[in-house]
Amino acid sequence: MGWHQGVDYLLTRKEVDSERIGMFGCSGGGTQTTFISAFDERIKAACPGCYITGFRRLLESIGPQDAEQNICNGILKKA
C-alpha cells in the first residue's frame, strides 16, 4: 500500500476528520513526512522528528542506505 492509499483509507473512516490529518516520522519516516506533506494537500500538519540527510550529502557518502530515502525521480538534475 502506498502512502496515498493510506490517506484514502483514513478518509473512509467516519471517526476521521478530513481537515485534521497529520503526519509524524523519525529518520527515514521524517524524510517521508517532509516529502509527502509537501506533495499531498490532504496532510494538514507535519512534524518530521528528524531527517536523515539531503540528497547532496547522501550522494557524497556511501549512498542510499534506506529505501524510504529514495524518492523516485527525485533527482532530475545533477546535485
In short:
The chain is an alpha+beta fold and 79 residues long.
Task: Explain this structure.
The chain is an alpha+beta fold. It has three helices and two strands. It has helices at 3-12, 28-39, 55-60; strands spanning 22-25, 45-48. A two-stranded parallel sheet has the order 1-2. It is elongated, with a radius of gyration of 14 Å. It starts with a helix and ends in a 19-residue tail after the last helix. The mean pLDDT is 80.
Distance between the termini: 30 Å
Largest sheet report? 2 strands, parallel
Series of secondary-structure elements, N-terminal to C-terminal: HEHEH
Share of helix, binned: 25-40%
Radius of gyration: 14 Å
Major β-sheet strand ordering: 1-2
Topology overview:
Elements: H1 3-12, E1 22-25, H2 28-39, E2 45-48, H3 55-60
Parallel strand pairs: 1-2
Features of the shown structure:
79 residues, alpha+beta, two-stranded parallel ribbon, 3 helices, 2 strands, 35% helix, elongated
